[in-house]
Write a structure and sequence with these properties.
Elements (H helix, E strand, L loop, with lengths): L2 E2 H8 L2 E3 L5 E2 L1 E2 L9 E4 L16 E5 L11 E5 L2 H16 L4 E2 L4 E2 L4 E2 L4 E2 L4 E2 L4 E2 L4 E2 L4 E2 L4 E2 L4 E2 L4 E2 L4 E2 L4 E2 L4 E4 L4 E3 L5 E3 L5 E4 L4 E2 L4 E3 L5 E4 L4 E2 L4 E2 L4 E2 L4 E2 L4 E2 L4 E2 L4 E2 L4 E2 L4 E2 L4 E2 L4 E2 L8 E3 L4 E2 H11 L2 H19 L1
Parallel strand pairs: 4-5, 5-6, 6-7, 8-11, 9-12, 10-13, 11-14, 12-15, 13-16, 14-17, 15-18, 16-19, 17-20, 18-21, 19-24, 20-25, 21-26, 24-27, 25-28, 26-29, 27-30, 28-31, 29-32, 30-33, 31-34, 32-35, 33-36, 34-37, 35-38, 37-39
Antiparallel strand pairs: 1-3, 2-7, 22-23, 39-40
Pathway: Bacterial outer membrane biogenesis; LPS lipid A biosynthesis
Protein name: UDP-3-O-acylglucosamine N-acyltransferase
EC number: 2.3.1.191
C-alpha cells in the first residue's frame, strides 16, 4: 500500500517542502529511515538525524527550520508527534478494513448479522448470536450461543467467546483471549474431595473496551462479571468470576484478580499485581507493579509492596530494607555494649 506526499499532507492538513509526488509504503524511526519509508521528528534530541536519514518523507513541526540541505521531503504540521499518531491510526484503519465472509465459516441459521460483517475462515457463530454493524471477526474465532456483539467491534484470531456473553460497541479483543469460561468454583466435601460449583452467570463488556492477547475473563457464578466502559486490559491478565472493573481503568500485563473483587473507576494497575477476592478498591487508585493487595483500598491511594502499603511509606522503608544486614549488626553490637554496661 503506497501513499504520496500529497495524500499524506491532505490527511494531516500539512504543508509540503520538497517533491510532492514521492511515494512511501512503510514507516520507520528517523534513525532507521530508508528509501520508501515515512518517519517523523518531534524530539529536539533527534534533530541531527533529519540530515542523515534516508527516509523519503519526514513529518516535522511547522517551526522547524533546516540549518543545512535536506534530501527528505518534509511535511510541516502543528504537532509532528500527534500528526504521526493520527497517520498510524489512519493506516491501521485502512489495513484492517476487511469485509465479506470468507470460505469455511459457519453461521447458525438463528444468528442475526448486521451490515458490513467481516468473518474470517474457520470461524463459528453459534445459535441466537446477535452481531451489530461493521463488526470484524478474524479467522479461527468461536462465538457461543446467545452472544451479543455491538457495532464496530473487532475480534482478532483465535478468540473464544463463551455463551451468554455481552460485548458492547467499539471494542477490540486481541488474539487468544477467552471470554466467559467457567469461574474457578469448587466446594470441598468432608472427605476433602472438591466438587465443581456450576457457573451459570455471564460476562458483560461495555463499550470502548480493549482486551489484550491471551487475557481470560471468567463468567460469574451467578449474575455477571462486568468490565465497564473504556477499560483497557493488557495481555495475559486473569479476571475471575463476579469481578467488576470500573470505567476507564487500565491494567497492565500478568495481573490476576480473584473472584468478587470490585475495582473502581479511573484506576491504574501495574504489571504482575495480585489482588485477592472479595475486596473493594476505590476510584483513582494507582497500584505499582508486583504489588499484592490483601485488603480494601480507599479512593485516590497510591500503593506498593506485598502486602501493599502506602507508596511513600514503601519508598522510605526500602532505604532500610537494603541496609538490614548492617542495621542488624549494629543492633547486636549495641545490645552487647548495653549488657556490658549493666554488669
Amino acid at each position: 500500500m503506497k501513499f504520496t506526499a500529497t495524500q499524506i499532507a491532505g490527511i494531516l492538513e500539512g504543508e509540503i517542502e520538497g517533491n510532492k509526488n514521492v511515494e512511501v509504503y512503510k514507516l520507520s524511526k528517523i534513525e532507521e529511515g530508508e528509501e520508501g519509508s515515512l518517519t517523523f521528528l518531534s524530539n529536539p534530541k533527534y534533530i541531527h538525524y533529519i540530515y542523515e536519514t534516508k527516509a523519503t518523507i519526514a513529518i516535522v513541526n511547522k517551526d522547524f527550520v533546516p540549518e543545512k540541505q535536506i534530501e527528505t521531503t518534509l511535511i510541516k504540521v502543528e504537532d509532528a508527534y500527534k500528526a504521526f499518531s493520527t497517520l498510524l491510526e489512519f493506516y491501521n484503519q485502512v489495513k484492517l478494513n476487511k469485509s465479506g465472509i470468507e470460505e469455511y465459516t459457519f453461521i447458525s441459521k438463528t444468528a442475526t448479522i448486521g451490515e458490513n460483517l467481516y468473518l474470517g475462515s474457520f470461524s463459528i457463530i453459534g445459535d441466537n448470536v446477535n452481531i451489530g454493524n461493521n463488526v470484524k471477526i478474524y479467522p479461527n474465532v468461536t462465538i457461543g450461543e446467545n452472544v451479543f456483539i455491538g457495532d464496530n467491534t473487532t475480534i482478532f484470531s483465535g478468540v473464544n467467546i463463551y455463551s451468554e456473553t455481552t460485548i458492547g460497541s467499539d471494542c477490540v479483543i486481541h488474539a487468544g483471549a477467552v471470554i466467559g469460561s467457567d469461574g474457578f468454583g469448587f466446594a470441598p466435601s468432608e472427605e476433602g474431595i472438591y466438587s465443581k460449583v456450576p457457573q451459570i452467570g455471564n460476562v458483560v463488556i461495555e463499550d470502548n473496551v480493549d482486551i489484550g492477547a491471551a487475557t481470560t475473563i471468567d463468567r460469574a457464578t451467578l449474575g455477571s462479571t462486568i468490565i465497564r466502559k473504556g477499560v483497557k486490559l493488557d495481555n495475559q491478565i486473569q479476571i475471575a468470576h463476579n469481578v467488576e472493573i470500573g470505567k476507564n481503568t487500565v491494567i497492565a500485563a500478568q495481573t490476576g484478580i480473584a473472584g468478587s473483587t470490585k475495582i473502581g473507576e479511573n484506576c491504574m494497575i501495574g504489571g504482575q499485581v495480585g489482588i485477592v477476592g472479595h475486596l473493594t478498591i476505590g476510584n483513582n487508585v494507582k497500584v505499582q507493579a508486583q504489588t499484592g493487595i490483601a485488603k480494601n483500598v480507599k479512593d485516590n491511594e497510591v500503593i506498593q509492596g506485598t502486602p501493599a502499603f502506602g507508596y511513600s511509606d514503601f519508598n522510605k522503608s526500602y532505604v532500610y530494607f537494603k541496609k538490614l544486614p548492617e542495621l542488624v549488626a549494629t543492633i547486636n553490637t549495641l545490645q552487647k555494649e548495653i549488657k556490658a554496661l549493666k554488669k
